[in-house]
Amino acid sequence: MSKVLEYSPTKAFEQQVRENAIDSNVTVSMGPQHPSTHGVLRLEVVLDGETVVSATPDIGYLHTGMEKIMETKKYQQNITITDRMDYLNPMGNNLGYVMCVEKLLDIVDDIPPRAQVIRVMLVELQRIASHMVWLGTHALDIGAMSMFFYCFREREKILNIFEAICGGRMTVSFFRVGGLPYDIPDFVPGMIKEFCDNFPAALKEYDTLLTGNKIYQGRARGVGIITAENAIAWGVTGPSLRGSGHDFDIRRYFPYCGYETYDFDVPVEKDCDVFARYMVRMRELKESHKIVLQTLDRLKPGPVKADTPKICLPDREVMLKQMDALIHHFLLAGLGFKVPPGEAYHAIEGSKGEYGVYIISDGSEHPYRVHVRGPSFVNLQALPIMAKGEMIADTVAIIGSLDIVLGEIDR
Amino acid sequence: MSEDALTKAEDPISEDVQLEKKTPLQQVVFITKDKFGDVIGEVLEKLGETSIFVKRESIVDVCRFLRDEEKFLFNLLSDIAGVDLGIEADPRFEVNYHLTSLPKRMLIRLKVRVSEEDCNVPTVVEVWPTANWLEREVFDLLGVRFEGHPDLRKILTPDDLEGHPLRKDFPLRGY
Which of A68, A401, B11, B150 could form a disulfide with A277 if both were Cys (CB 3.0 to 4.6 A apart)? Predict the structure, then answer.
């Protein structure tokens, strides 16, 4: 960008310019109320003309002390708090949290197969929904407004499925320690099947609207470059790292929930720019669709809770008829369950990257300490590297390509 | 297998063979202990996770060794989590480093403990630049200072907030 202005002045002229030079850099505060910062992110951008000299993110506007609150709530109550962190990926957050508690309780292997399959199905649907919001807003930032409506149309269908399952659309809180609270309604697999049948056509629409679009390619190609080594050093994970040519995907590297048995590819692009990250997510949509179809085939009748009456709430009908179930229900709802002392870190592949939960238990009903490794928080840190030397308008495209959610960054 | 190899495998003194019998994570612990000696404290193996206590002074050296040694290559710093072990506890604070090795596909946790009077930990920003914000978060929420950090400012809480919210003596309400 700055190379356009290259010229070779004489020494005397250079001297003259140096002596009379005034600092031509301008500092601009972008946000926190800026539509393209996806929430309340403030960027302090130092500009030389239109070129970014440095960009410093300023975060914390949404800080609500979730980790502190979690220390005072019972283990099962905290599931609702994880919903509100990355509000575009609540199923994934639930999964990361409950799997970490299950690891502490040492009941990871007791989760029934049907619960595992439903977990994978819902998490992959959530990944599609999350990528839909990313695609819509990223295109909107760049100026392609119609994408937004098409993307939210598909997302709406997924949210309707979630609503049919658990009543919540964005704050689902559907996973429980030990499995699921109840089985999904009978008509839901039909809804998912219908969604899956229509989804490839929608994907084709997105491709025609944006992927081959000359204007979009002009905005996205060669912008916001970060190499794979740099990305790993800066902790970038998820689709943003895979856009730099590294195939790190926790579903493959450290499989959980039986992901090793599903047939899917991990899309990797080598160009390291905004367009590569875009292509990775577009191809991931296809893979998630593939996984959801496989889970539909694997849905076999069976229990959805582990056989651990001291951890999982009993079914309603059982509770009304059996004395011991009633006692367990009373104790679980009133006092919660105790978790043996210890510590565990469990990471899952969220829609944005490595979503890790670290819990320390002191043997009581409340976690002693919960720490969440939000992928958005760490990925945003690499923004100054990517934005340096780019145009100010490209910063918007780079933020969009990182797919950040401020609820998770600030927690 | 030749006769020589058989006798070697049964020889308990031979370190190489001992090393081969261990899991990759046990090898990491073994080699690191061998290299650093006293600096490495207790090693916990629980729930399939390995934690190593490291003395504060050498955390940077241990981190750099774990990152660069060809057998481990812990190139991704996943997370830094600070913990307040209790108002009475001494040492009061604990900093947990979660390292991931992408080439070898393994995870390890390093632990550093510091007392309240002298809660300083050398920064690992030189080893992994991503430690920058992660350490700022620990500093902001727990008040553990990171020596040599290039930009140790508050990150999440407002500038006018006094105290560190994740300390156990910080009130949950009424602040």
Answer: A401
CA atoms of A274 and A2, how far apart (whole Å): 20
Best of B52, B92, B133, B151 to substitute, by most chain A Cβ atoms within 10 angstroms, is B133
Q: Where are the beta strands (DSSP E) in B23-167?
A: 40-46, 49-54, 76-84, 93-101, 106-114, 120-122, 145-147
Provide, as residue numbers in chain A, all residues whose Cβ is less than 8 Å from the Cβ of B166: 67-68, 369
User: Token digits for B27?
Assistant: 């090898």
Instruction: Look at A369 and B172 and tell me if their CB atoms are within 8 Å.
Output: no
Residue A32's pLDDT is 80
Could you give all domains of chain B from N- to C-terminal order, each with its CATH number? 23-147 (3.30.460.80)
Q: Could you give the CA distance from residue B96 to residue B63 in angstroms, rounded to a whole number?
A: 12
> With an 8 Å Cβ cutoff, are A373 and B141 in contact?
no
pLDDT score of B152: 87
CA separation for the pair A274, A379 (Å, rounded): 14
Question: Which residues, 6+ apart, have CB-to-CB distance to A183 below 8 Å?
Answer: A114, A304
Asked if B98 and A345 come within 8 Å (Cβ–Cβ), the reply is yes
Instruction: Give the predicted TM-score (pTM) of the model.
Output: 0.88
Where chain A has pLDDT below 70, the residues are: 1-14, 16-23, 35-37
Q: Does B99 touch chain A (CB under 8 A)?
A: no
The number of CA neighbours under 13 Å toward the Cβ of A234 is 22
Please state which of the ranges A162-171, A305-314, B15-24, B158-167 shows the lowest mean pLDDT.
B15-24
Q: What does DSSP say about strands B106-114 and B93-101: parallel, antiparallel, or unpaired?
A: antiparallel
Which residues of chain A make contact with B154, given a CB cutoff of 8 A? 60
Ramachandran class of B50: left when φ > 0, alpha when ψ lies in -120 to 50, beta otherwise: beta
Cβ distance A376 to A352 under 8 Å?
Answer: yes
Query: Please, what are the domains in chain A?
Result: 2-58 (no CATH), 66-410 (1.10.645.10)
| Distance to chain A for B105, nearest Cα, Å | 6
Torsion on CA atoms A209, A210, A215, A217, rounded to nearest 10: -150
Contacts of B175 in chain A (CB under 8 A): none
DSSP A7-33: ----HHHHHHHHHH----EEEEEE-SS
**Residue tagged 């009543």 (tokens):** A167
In one-letter notation, the amino acid at residue A365 is E
Pair A255, A346: CB distance under 8 Å: no
Q: What is the token pair recorded at A35? A: 């539509």
CA distance A237 to chain B (A): 9
Q: What confidence category does residue B158 fall into, taking pLDDT thresholds of 50, 70 and 90?
A: confident
Amino acid A370: pLDDT: 92
Residue ranges of the alpha helices (H) in A236-382? 239-242, 250-253, 274-298, 316-321, 323-335, 375-380
What is the ipTM, given to two decimal places? Answer: 0.86
Interface test with A, best of B68, B110, B156 (most A CBs within 10 A): B156
Query: d(Cα A30, Cα A8) in Å, to the nearest integer?
Result: 34
Please give the residue of chain A at the shortest CA–CA distance from B83. A369
Find where tokens 């930009």 sit: B151
